């Protein structure tokens, strides 16, 4: 319906695959109910083999719903959020402040996924933050950080504080704001957000019951990275990502256009 010209023959095969994966991630975020109309972002860093060592990123065209995003509609930008390929769609420089901060501080990260879900924001407002009350929470707590709320994140001076708070963690609670995950691949960032979001939903549901909550023994939290390897047969997010793509292909494969 948007009549977006295909970029498949205008970019490298490697970039096209990343575009397809990122568009799939946007569609999955929409399918699982994590989107906030048009107001959050998922960014993907393009590898040096594509950019020649420059810092280039793909991000959503501002104003499109997540279930409308396609591989060709994604906008390529630099660290200042300047467009690198002509696009009829605007970009949101304010929305890229958080993402550029993370990509700058964590060069090993390919994907940054940020949400404003109801459960995520609710837990972000709780003083105790993520509680060790579910199996899901144990994976999150093994690599969790917090960043205090400083208002809508459009001021560059917030970036060093956000970077310091994130450190080497892969899960970040943005206080009074939402959730953020990082991953070495788009699939990694998505699976982490799936776990993070369910952690928050379970916590809100458990608290709504009104009874005393049973907490996980702190000793179980040790060694969760190795537990994750075993749980995913050593494949990480790739144990689930192909199945998620098949799910999308059955319902609407237009994300690949």
User: Taking all residues together, what is the mean pLDDT?
Assistant: 93
Major beta-sheet overview: 7 strands, mixed
Approximate strand percentage: 5-15%
Shape: globular
Q: Over the alpha carbons, how many angstroms does the gyration radius reach?
A: 18 Å
Distance between the termini: 12 Å
Provide the low-confidence segments as ranges: none
Q: Give the neighbour order of strands across the main sheet.
A: 3-2-1-4-7-6-5
Characterization of the model:
The chain is α+β, with helices and mostly antiparallel strands and 257 residues long. The chain is 38% helix and 11% strand. The protein has a 7-stranded mixed sheet, sandwiched between helices. The radius of gyration is 18 Å and the shape is globular.
List strands and helices in order, with pairings:
Layout: H1 13-31, E1 42-45, H2 48-51, E2 57-59, E3 75-77, H3 96-105, E4 111-115, H4 118-124, H5 135-141, E5 144-147, H6 159-166, E6 171-174, E7 178-183, H7 186-208, H8 224-231, H9 241-251
Parallel strand pairs: 5-6
Antiparallel strand pairs: 1-2, 1-4, 2-3, 4-7, 6-7
Helix pairs in contact: 3-6, 4-7, 5-7
Quick description:
The model has no long low-confidence stretch (mean pLDDT 93). Strands 3-2-1-4-7-6-5 form a 7-stranded mixed beta sheet, sandwiched between helices.
Descriptors:
single chain; globular; seven-stranded mixed beta sheet; 257 residues; alpha+beta
């Amino acid at each position: 319906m948007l009549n977006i010209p295909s970029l498949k023959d205008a970019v490298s095969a490697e970039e096209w695959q990343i575009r397809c994966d990122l568009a799939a991630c946007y569609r999955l975020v929409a399918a699982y109910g994590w989107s906030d109309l048009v107001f959050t972002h998922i960014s993907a860093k393009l590898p040096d083999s594509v950019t020649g060592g420059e810092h280039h990123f793909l991000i959503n065209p501002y104003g499109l719903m997540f279930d409308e995003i396609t591989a060709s509609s994604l906008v390529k930008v630099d660290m200042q959020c300047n467009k690198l390929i002509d696009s009829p769609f605007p970009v949101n420089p304010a929305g890229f402040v958080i993402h550029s901060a993370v990509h700058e501080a964590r060069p090993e990260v390919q994907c940054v996924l940020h949400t404003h879900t109801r459960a995520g924001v609710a837990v972000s407002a709780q003083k105790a933050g993520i509680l060790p009350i579910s199996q899901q929470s144990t994976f999150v707590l093994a690599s969790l950080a917090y960043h205090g709320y400083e208002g809508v994140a459009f001021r560059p001076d917030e970036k060093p504080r956000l970077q310091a708070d994130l450190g080497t963690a892969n899960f970040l609670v943005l206080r009074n704001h939402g959730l953020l995950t990082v991953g070495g691949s788009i699939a990694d960032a998505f699976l982490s957000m799936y776990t993070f979001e369910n952690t928050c939903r379970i916590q809100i549901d458990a608290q709504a019951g009104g009874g005393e909550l049973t907490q996980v023994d702190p000793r179980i939290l040790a060694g969760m990275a190795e537990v994750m390897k075993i749980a995913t047969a050593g494949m990480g997010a790739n144990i689930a990502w192909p199945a998620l793509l098949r799910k999308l292909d059955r319902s609407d494969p237009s994300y690949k256009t």
